[in-house]
Amino acid sequence: MDDHVAEVILMNSNGNLSWSKKEYVTGYLPTSAVVNDFNNDNKDDFAVINSFINSVSVYLGMENGSFIFTNSFVTMLDPLVIAAGDFNGDNIIDIVTVNCNSYSFSLLFGYGNGYFQEQKNYSTHICSYSVAVADLNGDTYLDLVFDNYHNSSVMIYLGYGNGNFRPPIRVFTPINAIFVTVNDFNHDGRLDLAISHYNGYLSVLLSTC
């Protein structure tokens, strides 16, 4: 991404693997984007972090593959990464941002029309560079996993399904974690963690419960 631009690259359906690019003006220093349906019209929309001005901009998708800017929504200081999911159980997609220098994450609960409520903030006491969203404990509620770079661990927040979370669980890693993702890597029906480290190594933590 450029300092003020988000790019959408569309694949042309001509069988020649060609693409067309469209640019959309964002706030200053966009660092991360997420795709989801924010207004329940069965079309993909996207939201972009504007790190320098502490906000999220939302763009709603049209039938022709173009997008329309709706509004920007305030976050805590220095948002870095964004993800989406239904965190309060109302079947409407919400947004979560990781705010590195304010050691927090923000939840913006969706109205289902592309607009969001005022941020709800949670202190993490760590500067994270990534977040993974998944139901880790099988209770049907979405949970959050953050890397904890400076303390060689990841932090797991189990969700109650109402927009609140249990106190974090720290899982230690071999060395400083910089990115975390979730999947069932050994096909046992339980979600595992894959963690990348600043020294070029990758570790996989297999779930045992």
Automatic annotation (TrEMBL):
Keyword Signal tagged: yes
Superkingdom field: Eukaryota
Pfam families: FG-GAP_3
Alphabetic keyword roster: Signal
Signal sequence interval, chain numbering: none
Name of the protein in question: VCBS repeat-containing protein
Organism: Adineta ricciae
Lineage of origin: Eukaryota, Metazoa, Spiralia, Gnathifera, Rotifera
